[in-house]
Write a structure and sequence with these properties.
Blueprint: E1 3-8, E2 11-17, H1 30-39, H2 41-45, E3 52-56, E4 66-69, E5 75-80, H3 87-100, H4 105-116, H5 122-130, E6 145-152, H6 156-167, E7 172-182, E8 185-190, E9 206-210, H7 219-226, E10 228-232, E11 247-252, E12 256-263, E13 268-269, E14 274-281, H8 297-304, E15 314-319, H9 321-335
Parallel strand pairs: 5-6, 6-7, 9-11
Antiparallel strand pairs: 1-2, 3-4, 4-5, 7-8, 9-15, 10-14, 11-12, 12-14, 13-14
Length: 336
């Protein structure tokens, strides 16, 4: 809930709750809510919880809205409701879970390849995404299912229904959202489990940022030579997830962390494909005709005692300022 703080004689004295709305209030569909959640699932909403999206619903199909995997291979099923939905909506998602619970590895892989438009095997993509020493065995996928119902915080009947099934042993949780209209702006409030942990946007942070090696092996050298970090194509918008003062660690696939820099500039939309920010490098730049030195990913995990989701341009979770400074110090030592 959002509250306005009242002041008297420069003292905080009272709080006043702000009225909220849902997606239906703005004439938006459940597909709009689905796209908003799926597009921001990792980098923003579940910043501290690594999930690998593998599929989204298709029109006129009896499917949940979003399917994802965690590092253990468990299937996470999202069902999204834009406004008051009632108990019927929950029966629907329970049916989806019952169906998905019978999916074999082959079925999961088929859906993943369709979603990502790739020929890469699911177990290899999962291993790379979570940086596992060995890929999971096919039989280890989809051993458990977890249901996450996203709905309006005002939908009491849906909340009661979720609590009923949760208390009866079903692995289900309710994630409430609220929309606030303040002035001419709309604000989205969302609660990710278990603790809704996020780096404070007012504070500078550390970010592990991909060099785009898979799609353009020369992109890294453009970044080093022209002092910028860039995001490309369908994910170019993630450049907005870093800001001035953030420390960016360049993550080069198959190698590790190859350099660090501090963000100095605003977003520069170079063209329809490339969006970038100017930076100042904090580590020595490598030379293109010499072997590339890098801190391996396992050492990054060891230093920070954190696991990351490696499959996207921005690797989550973010680093606090203190963690970023520690990693920078260790990186400088390693690259000497």
């Amino acid at each position: 809930m959002l509250y306005k703080v009242k002041k008297e004689e420069n003292q905080f004295t009272k709080i006043e709750p702000i009225g909220f709305k849902d997606f239906a209030s703005f004439g938006k569909s459940e597909k709009d809510l689905e796209n908003l959640i799926s597009n921001n699932l990792l980098t923003t909403l579940f910043e501290d919880g690594s999930l690998m999206p593998i599929f989204q619903e298709r029109q006129w199909q009896a499917e949940a809205d979003i399917y994802a995997l965690n590092s253990n291979g468990d299937l996470i099923i999202f069902e999204l409701k834009r406004s008051s939905a009632g108990e019927g909506a929950l029966h629907q998602v329970l049916r989806y879970a019952q169906t998905a619970g019978r999916w074999t590895y082959s079925k999961l892989e088929e859906k993943y390849k369709t979603y990502e438009k790739t020929d890469k095997s699911l177990k290899l993509a999962h291993q790379e995404a979570f940086d596992l020493e060995e890929p999971l065995l096919e039989r280890e996928f989809n051993q458990n299912q977890h249901l996450l119902v996203v709905g309006s915080a005002a939908d009491d009947s849906l909340i009661e229904a979720v609590n009923y099934w949760k208390n009866n042993g079903v692995k289900i949780d309710f994630l409430p959202y609220r929309l606030y209209e303040i002035g001419d702006e709309v604000y989205f409030e969302f609660f990710s489990k278990p603790y809704d942990r996020h780096i404070n946007p007012l504070n500078n942070k550390g970010v592990l940022f991909d060099t785009n090696k898979t799609y353009n092996k020369n992109a890294i050298w453009d970044m080093f030579e022209k002092d910028y970090v860039a995001a490309y194509g369908d994910v170019k918008h993630v450049i907005y997830h870093i800001k001035k003062g953030d420390i960016v660690f360049l993550s080069h696939k198959g190698h590790g962390i190859v350099g660090a820099c501090k963000v100095k500039g605003n977003v520069d939309k170079k063209d329809d494909y490339t969006w970038l920010r100017k930076v100042e490098f904090l580590t020595k730049k490598p030379e293109k005709d010499k072997p590339l030195k890098a801190m391996p990913f396992w050492k990054v995990r060891e230093i920070l005692n954190k696991n990351f989701y490696w499959a996207k341009t921005i690797k989550v979770p973010y680093l606090s300022k203190e963690e970023a400074e520690l990693l920078l110090e260790k990186l400088k030592e390693h690259l000497k």
